[in-house]
Each structure stands twice: as structure tokens, then as C-alpha cells.
């Protein structure tokens, strides 16, 4: 992958998927709920800062905790000196002792995961230059070999870093909750029912997922 582009102040430039407007039009025509969500949050766009390590690290930090809690931990984590609030580096993570990393509010398990991830990047253990040519499932298979990276984390990577258009993260609690509220009047929803709803979203299920998230939390998180 190419080096992350930065602005004059050294911060990463935000990039929006080129297909976003086409996706919004497609979803609005195919799905009445999506039409309403796009109208309501149409000015919001998925934006990526284009750094693979930071995206995966933020996903690990956010595992099994709320968006608000994850942001709080991330802010304390960055304050340890691992990078800027937008970009962190594997080398900076690896030089910090475990107790220091734990002081940011990270569990011992998440510290292990972050350090293992940092080692994979520092030692060149990932096929980064081939990701653009690889299918979604092939990338997921590669990433889940890293400790602490499960399917959900890999899917967040596909959405927020590679900006793949048709990812459906059925393990995401927010997606399932949002489908329940928007399509089933708050009734419990099975994975099969969620998948059936999402059939109408293809080939832009990532974009639809993004708007379902916005229905729960209007303020987007940028990984």
C-alpha cells in the first residue's frame, strides 16, 4: 500500500470512497428505510485516514466496549506517546512496557493483541502490497491469523481502511440493533433476518451499514 498522504501540518488527509454518491442513490431507490436515513444523514460520509496499522489498532481497542468508552481509552493510549491522535506507529507501541500500556485502560489481553499486531507490521508479516488485488475473504483469512483479530475486526478494516463497498459485519452489535430498530420496530433480529434485509443493499452493504450506525449515533467514528 502507498504511504499515507498527509496535509501541511503532517496530519493524514481524510479520504471518502469514490462510489459513495452512487451507493446512496442505489440504496435510496431500493430501500425505503435507507432512503430516509440517507436523507437524514446525507452530509455524513465514511472517511479513512489511510493507515492500516492505526485502523486495526483502533478496532482492537474498540472490541466489546461502547464507542464512547473506546474513544476514551484511545485518547489515553495516544497520550502515552505512541503517535498523534490520528496515526500511531508499531515501533512506538513496542517500546512501551506492559504496565504503561495498561495505564491507558487497556486490558492485559488487549495489550497482548496490540503488541502482536505491532510486531506483524514491524517485521513485515503481512501482504500489504497485495491487499488491493485480494478479495475480501482472502484478506479476512490473513488478518484473523493475528492474535486478537477476529472476523469483526477484519471487517472493520475492510470498511474503514480498504473502503470495500459490500461488507456486511453481522457480528456487529450496532448493526443488528440498528436493523432491529429501523426494520422490526425494536423486535429481536436473527442473523438470517439481518442478512435478508441486507440483500437489498448489495452491492453497497458497507454504505448501508454505515447509515444504520448513524441512526444509533449520528457522530461517526473514523478509524
Automatic annotation (TrEMBL):
<dbReference type="GO" id="GO:0006307">
    <property type="term" value="P:DNA alkylation repair"/>
</dbReference>
<dbReference type="Pfam" id="PF00730">
    <property type="entry name" value="HhH-GPD"/>
</dbReference>
<dbReference type="InterPro" id="IPR011257">
    <property type="entry name" value="DNA_glycosylase"/>
</dbReference>
<dbReference type="GO" id="GO:0043916">
    <property type="term" value="F:DNA-7-methylguanine glycosylase activity"/>
</dbReference>
<dbReference type="GO" id="GO:0032131">
    <property type="term" value="F:alkylated DNA binding"/>
</dbReference>
<keyword id="KW-0227">DNA damage</keyword>
<dbReference type="InterPro" id="IPR003265">
    <property type="entry name" value="HhH-GPD_domain"/>
</dbReference>
<dbReference type="GO" id="GO:0008725">
    <property type="term" value="F:DNA-3-methyladenine glycosylase activity"/>
</dbReference>
<feature type="domain" description="HhH-GPD">
    <location>
        <begin position="61"/>
        <end position="217"/>
    </location>
</feature>
<protein>
    <recommendedName>
        <fullName>DNA-3-methyladenine glycosylase II</fullName>
        <ecNumber>3.2.2.21</ecNumber>
    </recommendedName>
</protein>
<keyword id="KW-0378">Hydrolase</keyword>
<dbReference type="GO" id="GO:0006285">
    <property type="term" value="P:base-excision repair, AP site formation"/>
</dbReference>
<keyword id="KW-0234">DNA repair</keyword>
<comment type="similarity">
    <text>Belongs to the alkylbase DNA glycosidase AlkA family.</text>
</comment>
<dbReference type="InterPro" id="IPR051912">
    <property type="entry name" value="Alkylbase_DNA_Glycosylase/TA"/>
</dbReference>
<keyword id="KW-0326">Glycosidase</keyword>
<dbReference type="GO" id="GO:0032993">
    <property type="term" value="C:protein-DNA complex"/>
</dbReference>
Amino acid at each position: 500500500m502507498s504511504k499515507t498522504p498527509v496535509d501541511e501540518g503532517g496530519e493524514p488527509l481524510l479520504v471518502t470512497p469514490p462510489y459513495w454518491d452512487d451507493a446512496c442513490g442505489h440504496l435510496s431507490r431500493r430501500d425505503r428505510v435507507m432512503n430516509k436515513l440517507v436523507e437524514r444523514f446525507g452530509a455524513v460520509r465514511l472517511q479513512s485516514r489511510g493507515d492500516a496499522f492505526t485502523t486495526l489498532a483502533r478496532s482492537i481497542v474498540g472490541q466489546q466496549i461502547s464507542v464512547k468508552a473506546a474513544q476514551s481509552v484511545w485518547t489515553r493510549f495516544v497520550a502515552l506517546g505512541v503517535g498523534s491522535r490520528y496515526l500511531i506507529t508499531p515501533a512506538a507501541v513496542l517500546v512501551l512496557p506492559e504496565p504503561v500500556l495498561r495505564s491507558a485502560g487497556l486490558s492485559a489481553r488487549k495489550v497482548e493483541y496490540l503488541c502482536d499486531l505491532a510486531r506483524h507490521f514491524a517485521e513485515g508479516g503481512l501482504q500489504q502490497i497485495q491487499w488491493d488485488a485480494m478479495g475480501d475473504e482472502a484478506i479476512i483469512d490473513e488478518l484473523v491469523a493475528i492474535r486478537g483479530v477476529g472476523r469483526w475486526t477484519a471487517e472493520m478494516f475492510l470498511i474503514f481502511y480498504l473502503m470495500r463497498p459490500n461488507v456486511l459485519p453481522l457480528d456487529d452489535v450496532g448493526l443488528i440493533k440498528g436493523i432491529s430498530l429501523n426494520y422490526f420496530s425494536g423486535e429481536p433480529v436473527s442473523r438470517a433476518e439481518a442478512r435478508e434485509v441486507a440483500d437489498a443493499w448489495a452491492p453497497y452493504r458497507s454504505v448501508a451499514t454505515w447509515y444504520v450506525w448513524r441512526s444509533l449515533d449520528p457522530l461517526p467514528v473514523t478509524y
